[in-house]
Amino acid sequence: MALLTGRTAVVTGGAQGIGRAIAEVFVREGARVVIGDLDPQAAEAAAKELGGPSVARAAACDVTVAADVDALLGAALDTFGSLDVMVNNAGITRDATLRTMTEEQFDQVVDVHLKGTWNGTRKAAAIMRERKRGAIVNISSLSGKVGMVGQTNYSAAKAGIVGLSKAAAKELAHHGVRVNVIQPGLIRTAMTEAMPRKAWDQKMAEIPMGRAGEPHEVATVALFLASELSSYMTGAVLEVTGGRLM
Ligand code: NDP
Fold it and tell me: Which positions fall inside the Ketoreductase domain (predicted)?
């Protein structure tokens, strides 16, 4: 039997990149998925490619807006009748050194990652705790473990996701809801393809496995944390980095 048969999952930022790969793996494992993304057309296109309305739906959602997250989770309940897995994946970067970063760049990144993940976690938890079952997977970053030059905003937000998730894991464990975190390293997506060549090469040099990761290699770890394979895990942080900065 597939690992997520009969389960409904919501994936934020699921129109492309890592979120899209997670949605794809989940559908392959029997889940019905609702993709929430800033870009409704891209989300629609992704849902169609994943198999159409019987298994995948799209909803416009800005994770920084609590009402949008309510509507996204409402779409999962209305369409598929449950909410079993929540993946808080939506993300942006606004890299700049401390000397040049604007307050707006700081606020934008903290808002999308930290407030967005908080919104997704608290809203999903409110539904899951009533049903005494659920798995929440939050996407942090290696940048939140070690701190990266040019990312005081992103590193702060991604480290914050770890603290948020551990606190939530403690609050929700006795309600049957697990909260775990993934810290990807260098994964080949639109976000990293925008990176200057020099920065890419520097990161590559730090990876013992000698290559960047592919989105599906994060997605299969999300599958593990979303499924009963990880039934005794909560508050854990799993690095998916090819051994980089272990
Ligand atoms: P992408 O830029 O490819 O995808 C991110 C998605 O999130 C986009 O579809 C984007 O929509 C969406 N999004 C952005 N802001 C919001 C918002 N406010 N509300 C809803 N959706 C939003 O990035 P990745 O797939 O690379 O990254 C996915 C996650 O993984 C992020 O949290 C990222 O920080 C994390 N990560 C990525 C790593 C990598 O190497 N790629 C490494 C470590 C962590 P739109 O395109 O319309 O803006």
Answer: 7-190
Measured CA to CA, the distance from residue 7 to residue 18 in angstroms comes to 20
CA distance 21 to 175: 29
Q: Is 134 in the pocket of ligand 1 (CB under 6 A)?
A: no
Question: How many angstroms separate the CA atoms of 124 and 114, rounded?
Answer: 15
Give the end-to-end CA distance of the chain in Å, rounded to a whole number: 34
* Angstrom distance (rounded) from CA 185 to CA 67: 31
Whose C-alpha lies nearest to ligand 1, atom 2? 191
Q: What is the pLDDT of residues 137-165, one digit of tens each?
A: 999 999 999 999 999 999 999 999 999 99
Q: Confirm or reject: Cβ of 194 under 6 Å from ligand 1.
A: no
In a domain? residue 246: no
CATH of residue 206: 3.40.50.720
**Most distant pair of Cα atoms in the chain: their distance:** 54
Say whether 232 is catalytic. Answer: no
Q: Which residue has the least CA distance to atom 44 on ligand 1?
A: 141
Q: Give pTM, 2 decimals.
A: 0.99
Question: Quick check: is 2 in a domain?
Answer: no
Ligand 1 atom closest to Cα of 212?
A: 40
CB burial of residue 98 (10 Å; 0-12, 13-18, 19+): exposed
Tally of domains in the chain: 1
Count of Cβ atoms closer than 10 Å to residue 147 Cβ: 14
**151 within ligand 1 shell (Cβ under 6 A):** no
